[in-house]
Task: inverse folding
């Protein structure tokens, strides 16, 4: 019974809880037991908040018993990326520098989850400060891909994706600055959405690159993702960049999947050299499927996309060099070398040396350099121009098609350790996902099969214009239904038992 | 270092033209901080007016204070600036413990107001136009208190205490264009500019602009160039010059120091300077080579500020009468000279005098009390006139009592003393202290009779025609009535009693 609960979709589990067939506490206990059983191997969680989760589940059950009207996901457990502040619950952002910090406040997303009765099981692992594509940059050790524990689960939100794929949680929250929701979804056979920039509040989401960071929903099905999307989205007066407009009708779209008559553009620039054969094969089949389902497919030229990665690696480090300046060891988190003899400057310097990992330091240095007087125009300034060009490419494309598609990542999950000494190879994992961040568009990754050569999941990326997040779900639901009809079961059924 | 001769101010001006640039920070008096809802009450316990945003906690985000933007626009309009159609905040990156995020949210190349001017009036009534480069919005830092050092400076301190109550309080930084052509009047122009700006800020009601409380702080940039040359010399930047007098002295002292260095054939070092109130001189601070690269870039956590034109015009239409205009009008109404008006201003008496007149006093009387007795007492206590515990209404009542003959000046001063001592309003003090002029004929007549009886020799002289001797008897009457007698009436009675006519 309890192991069965962990295999359910969030929608099905919520329905059972709503019908009184099971309780929120039972659902939480089943998932906590699953975590207990498998997370030693997977390492999806940095912190499991057993007591907090059970207390929250009890509250949901009590409210339901009292006849209260609860949200559509009430009582369903979730893995929360450790980048969101949780009042009184450790929040490290995958970094030593925040070890031991107990935030005095909840992020808006955290608050909305609680208000929806969604039970937060714990904080999921991630690349330090969301910088990475493999979760190997976590200061607390890597996460294994449930499809093959010797491989990476993607990053930075590898913990969230792995928790879903290993049935430790039916829902998870990620953040996507350059692909940190979509690429992990792709390599773990799960679904992830980067909402339109400004669609989900960033308040309480520890900043990496403010103009790119976007929190979003992750799940094992398109409908579950939509339900979670609706629960966390919406205007927040505490985030000036949050969009003051109604949330696009994502749940309705997910319940009414269809691509008939839809104009789909295949991005010419997101294919070719460096793309794994099996990835291109499955992607080609997905495009064929769209055609069969009635979509009108054309190729779309986005010439500036070839410069996206370079622009991203100037803008994101620039903003991060400023965002991470606050970690100085003076007010919270780690403090190193404060023996009474050293100045504040020396203690700050020692703390940052000890508290930040190599990738974080690399990006702080890159960004500091790019913003320096005399280099600003050549680096940060040029990158902003490229960003504008990419937005124009999108605008032109969306003048002709309704959505764009591409592979989510050029390859399937690579072995842990393979790219740690080659930052550029690591950066290439985000080649396909970065353009949507630079332009602020909405994008989804969902499974489109297993690569024949390694049997690992391949992701299909769908990109929609800003504030047309519902299109992702309409297309995603249709694709998901057609693939599952073809496969006879959800893709995760093919993942090995842990 | 070469031994150099001190150059007199006059000698310095004989060879060089001073060029000044003034940067003034004004702390706005908004109820909440620039980017969060924390209170801005002065004097609260350390770190009690803070939240995740102004403490720069991980994940926290700023939200712009609409009143702060409105104040910035109004200041810009009052300074005859163009108001930007669209502008952004920028991050100024540098590490300092009293700055929680280790960057200051400010504005860089897109200020909200730019290209304006402020006309300032010098002592002799001459008007000098100071061109304004820009006015921009930013946030204040927290406050560091260094413990264990001898001087309160960080050098030699064992530890520091940090109070973030001030962190995030809105500031408007107002920067002038280089001020040229002031010549020997440069120190006076600097002072007059800061003074005029302070009046303007107060008139707008956006800040109390109390320099002694750090609500208005001035940095003085100064360089010299030989007469007849166009190129500016190397400048020094004297930080935190925080009184009108200090602004004047800092300019003067830097002119002399620059001239001394240049006269010795040496070069001015581009650096910041600390100003010392006690000596009126400066010492070196941070050198340009050590200066930080602030790596400004547009603040991605805030959306651009785009003041709607109609709104800006509405604000322009609702600007209060500006100080210089108001002063001109009042000067005319009061019928006083420019010089007299200047004295009123210097004493900080403009508002109290105006309010006192508003409460019914004659302009001359209002001016007389505030500029005389009250200025003296404020000076004794080292407070501003407006801080004295007496209201313009009360001063107007004192003036009215004098005008109707119920008090003479001497008694009026006692009434004021009583009000300041907290004994109540003027009428209460008169009542409690029994300070009415004794013009009651019975009481006064008795006092006159006593004085004559007690001074028979003087009385005899007066009877003999020495009318001038009556003064001695008047003095005796005043003494006996403890100053409450109407002296003129007493003299009249004495002469009547002694059978002589005045």
Result:
């Amino acid at each position: 019974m309890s192991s069965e609960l962990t295999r359910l979709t969030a929608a099905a589990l919520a329905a059972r809880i709503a019908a009184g067939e099971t309780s929120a506490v039972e659902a939480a206990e089943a998932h906590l037991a699953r975590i207990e059983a498998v997370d030693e191997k997977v390492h999806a969680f940095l912190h499991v908040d057993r007591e907090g989760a059970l207390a929250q589940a009890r509250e949901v059950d009590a409210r339901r018993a009292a006849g209260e009207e609860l949200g559509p996901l009430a009582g369903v457990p979730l893995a929360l990326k450790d980048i969101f502040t949780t009042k009184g619950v450790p929040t490290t952002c995958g970094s030593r520098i925040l070890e031991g910090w107990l935030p005095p406040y909840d992020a808006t997303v955290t608050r909305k989850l609680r208000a929806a009765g969604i039970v937060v099981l714990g904080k999921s692992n991630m690349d330090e400060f969301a910088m990475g594509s493999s979760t190997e940059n976590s200061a607390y050790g890597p996460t294994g891909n449930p499809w093959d524990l010797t491989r990476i689960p993607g990053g930075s939100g590898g913990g969230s994706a792995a928790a879903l794929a290993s049935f430790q949680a039916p829902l998870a929250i990620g953040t996507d600055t350059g692909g940190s929701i979509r690429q992990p979804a792709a390599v773990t056979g799960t679904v992830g959405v980067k909402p339109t920039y400004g669609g989900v509040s960033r308040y309480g989401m520890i900043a990496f690159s403010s103009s790119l960071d976007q929190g979003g929903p992750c799940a094992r099905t398109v409908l579950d993702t939509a339900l979670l999307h609706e629960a966390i989205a919406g205007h927040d007066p505490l985030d000036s960049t949050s969009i003051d407009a109604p949330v696009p009708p994502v749940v309705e779209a997910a319940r009414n999947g269809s691509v008939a008559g839809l104009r789909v553009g295949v991005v010419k620039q997101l294919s070719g050299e460096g793309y794994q054969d099996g990835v291109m094969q499955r992607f080609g089949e997905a495009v064929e499927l769209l055609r069969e389902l009635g979509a009108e497919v054309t190729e779309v030229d986005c010439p500036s996309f070839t410069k996206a990665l370079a622009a991203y690696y100037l803008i994101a480090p620039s903003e991060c060099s400023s965002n991470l300046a606050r970690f100085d060891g003076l007010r919270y988190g780690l403090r190193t070398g404060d023996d009474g003899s050293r100045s504040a400057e020396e203690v700050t310097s020692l703390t940052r040396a000890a508290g930040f990992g190599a990738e974080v330091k690399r990006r702080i240095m890159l960004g500091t350099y790019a913003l320096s007087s005399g280099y600003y125009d050549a680096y940060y300034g040029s990158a902003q121009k490229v960003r504008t060009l990419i937005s124009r490419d999108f605008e032109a494309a969306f003048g002709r098609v309704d959505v764009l598609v591409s592979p989510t990542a050029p390859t399937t999950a690579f072995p842990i350790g393979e790219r740690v000494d080659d930052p550029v190879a690591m950066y290439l994992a985000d080649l396909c996902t970065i353009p949507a961040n630079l332009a602020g568009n909405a994008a989804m990754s969902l499974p489109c099969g297993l690569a024949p050569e390694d049997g690992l999941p391949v992701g299909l990326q769908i990109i929609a214009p800003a504030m047309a997040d519902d299109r992702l779900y309409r297309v995603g639901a249709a694709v998901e239904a057609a693939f599952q009809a073809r496969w006879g079961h959800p893709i995760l059924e093919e993942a090995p038992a842990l | 270092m070469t031994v150099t001769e001190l150059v007199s101010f006059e000698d310095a001006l004989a060879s060089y033209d001073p060029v000044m640039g003034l940067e003034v920070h004004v702390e706005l008096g908004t109820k909440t901080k620039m980017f969060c809802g924390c209170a801005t009450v002065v004097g609260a316990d350390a770190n009690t007016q803070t939240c995740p945003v102004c403490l720069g906690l991980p994940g926290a985000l700023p939200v712009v204070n609409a009143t702060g933007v409105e104040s910035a626009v109004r200041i810009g309009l009052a300074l005859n600036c163009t108001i930007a159609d669209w502008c952004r905040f920028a991050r100024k990156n540098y590490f300092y413990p009293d700055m929680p995020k280790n960057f200051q949210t400010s504005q860089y190349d897109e200020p909200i107001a730019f290209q304006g001017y402020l006309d300032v009036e010098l002592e002799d009534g001459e008007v000098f136009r100071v061109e304004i480069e820009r006015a921009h919005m930013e946030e204040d830092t927290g406050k560091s208190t260094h413990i264990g050092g001898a001087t309160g400076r960080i050098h030699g301190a064992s530890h520091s205490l940090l109070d973030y109550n001030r962190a995030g309080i809105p500031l408007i930084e107002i920067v002038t264009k280089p001020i040229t052509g002031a010549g020997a009047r440069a120190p006076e122009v600097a002072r007059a500019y800061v003074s005029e700006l302070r009046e303007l800020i107060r008139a707008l009601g956006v800040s109390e602009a109390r320099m002694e409380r750090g609500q208005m702080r001035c940095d003085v940039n100064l360089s010299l160039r030989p007469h007849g040359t166009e190129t500016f010399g190397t400048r020094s930047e004297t930080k935190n010059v925080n009184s009108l007098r200090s602004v004047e002295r800092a300019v003067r002292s830097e002119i002399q120091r620059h001239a001394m260095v240049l006269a010795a054939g040496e070069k001015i070092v581009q650096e910041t300077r600390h100003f010392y109130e006690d000596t009126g001189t400066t010492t070196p601070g941070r050198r340009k080579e050590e200066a930080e690269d602030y790596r400004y870039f547009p603040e991605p956590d805030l959306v651009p500020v785009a003041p709607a034109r109609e709104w800006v015009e509405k604000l322009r239409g609702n600007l209060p009468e500006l100080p210089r205009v108001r002063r001109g009008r009042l000067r005319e109404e009061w019928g006083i000279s420019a010089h007299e008006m200047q004295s009123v201003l210097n004493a900080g008496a403009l508002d109290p005098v105006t309010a006192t007149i508003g409460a019914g006093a004659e302009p001359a009387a209002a001016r007389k009390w505030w500029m005389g007795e009250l200025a003296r007492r404020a000076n004794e206590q080292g407070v501003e006139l407006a801080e004295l515990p007496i209201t313009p209404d009360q001063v107007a009542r004192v003036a009215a009592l004098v005008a109707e003959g119920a008090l003479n000046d001497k008694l009026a001063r006692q009434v004021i003393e009583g009000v300041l001592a907290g004994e109540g309003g003027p009428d209460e003090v008169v009542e409690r202290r029994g300070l009415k002029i004794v013009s009651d004929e019975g009481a006064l007549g008795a006092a006159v009779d006593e004085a004559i009886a007690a001074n028979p020799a003087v009385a005899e002289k007066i009877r003999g025609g020495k009318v001038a001797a009556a003064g001695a008897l008047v003095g005796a009457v005043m003494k006996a009535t403890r100053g409450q007698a109407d002296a003129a009436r007493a003299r009249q009675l004495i002469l009547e009693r002694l059978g002589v006519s005045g």
